[in-house]
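Why does this matter for the project? Reviewers at the last site visit asked to see concrete outputs rather than summary tables. In response, this paragraph embeds two records directly. Each consists of the residue sequence and, immediately after it, the corresponding structure tokens. Nothing has been edited or filtered.
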Amino acid sequence: MPTRQQEIAAVLKVVPPFADLAALQAEIDRRIGFIQERLRASGLKTLVLGISGGVDSLLAGRLAQLAVETLRAAGGDAASDYRFIAVRLPYKEQHDERDARAALDFIRADEVCVVNIEAGVRGLAAQLAHLHCLPAPRRDFVLGNLKARCRMAAQYAIANATGGLVIGTDHAAEAVMGFFTKFGDGACDLAPLSGLVKSQVRAMASHLGAPEALVHKTPTADLEELHPGKPDELAYGVSYAEIDAFLHGQPVSEAASARILAAFDASAHKRGLPLAP
């Protein structure tokens, strides 16, 4: 009978460890093909993705750019219309702006635009009386989720305006921990990194030639103003190495296993469709 560890890996469709570089390249090709297939099937021509400066959006962005470039090269009716729009979505001044610019330099998107969400977040927050009476840490957390949702609203507005699909960056290591904002960065039309663990995301980005400083950069959602640059692993209570090992069916400590299982169970509502009678 499958263990919970195996059941979770199956639910998240976790990709087994790459056997060699050929397997890694095959996975890159498969995901580029997936993006192309879904874009063609939609009848649309544009892909939209927010670029943060982290390795997840860096990889997803480069896959998207390669996908549209190949579609254009293949020719056909209106093939020249395929394009990828990379969107910078800072709140005020982003502390790792240099990393975001380096990511854009690597991705080489057809179009880059910048939408600063500060005014929108502040304007909406000012109208929400329920936020005003919250203790500072709780208010900061709620505002962090509001930022993520404003970013996704901006991406969908751009996609609507340009006839496009929104790409997400969720992968198995974040999905198992529920480390995304519901209807925020968890909302998208395509999730080309789905099923990958963090080490695989890094390996694929490195194989494509991404700067190693970005590939191995400490991951952070950077949504909380009281804890700027807070590492994902600090929020998790476990390391990405432990999460990856768990998802690949390898031994982990009892404490790590318990933390991962608890996070998976608590975040089930984020991974499911809305409840209905």
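We now turn to the second protein, recorded in exactly the same manner.
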Amino acid sequence: MVDLLQLVFAGLSQGAVYALIAIGFVAVFTVSGVINLAQGEFAALAGLVAISAAGSGLPLPAAAVVAVASVAVVAVLMERLAIAPVKRMTTLVSLILTLGVSTGLKALMLLVYGPNAEGLTPITPGGVTVGGVSIRYQELWILAVAGLVALAVYWFYERTLAGKALRACAEQPVAARLVGISLGRASLTAFLIAGCVGAVAGVLASPVYFTSWESGLTLGLKGFVAATLGGLVSVRGAVLGGLLLGVLENLTAGYVSTGLRDAVAFLLLIIVLVARPSGVFGRHAEARV
């Protein structure tokens, strides 16, 4: 029982990181219909920037702020330079464009930060044992911050006029334009939110899972699977999908084989796309994936 609880808690912590990445996918897709394959690179870049900033002498909170701000700027530039100029954006075009940006960011990170994986200093070092389950304080920080960020994004999209206006741009773009909603500004805001959320995920995950120029690929794929479980339109579904994926991965690694850990995500993706394209936790019956 202790082993089971240990695996479940570790899975929840890891799943919270996936959930934040998934929220970034949802934030962009619900507004512009773009599937942003560079979302994982936002997290990796934030982790590397925070490590570099902390290594230069900045306090950890200041390094985290610098990392989030830097990635937010990258996300905004990506939207303005790669997404906004395209007049007829389709899913295929968005995949090609964002894959190109993802590849460019990976090459830039490799050039600037090198090939070695590094880890940021934990917010609170050490841990505690509860009922035989070993819990690192950093994992508690991941769960707490991820929960607060998820609630903030959910509240913005579901409860505020500005958030509903952003969603209207994807659901009824013509009507949104007629009532004075700027589609360009809405897309820019969505990418800004996605960049900030992805950066937070990267900074939180770095002390536990380490960061390298290629870690964004895995994070992005896992985040995409989690977002797909929510149909790519539900923040709540993205969070539940991320937590479920994290727990299933750790249970598979603990009771079956560590080599099958990554296969869980892709097996889930295939099952969802075949059996329920609208997502397991999706809000609408209409297929959006």
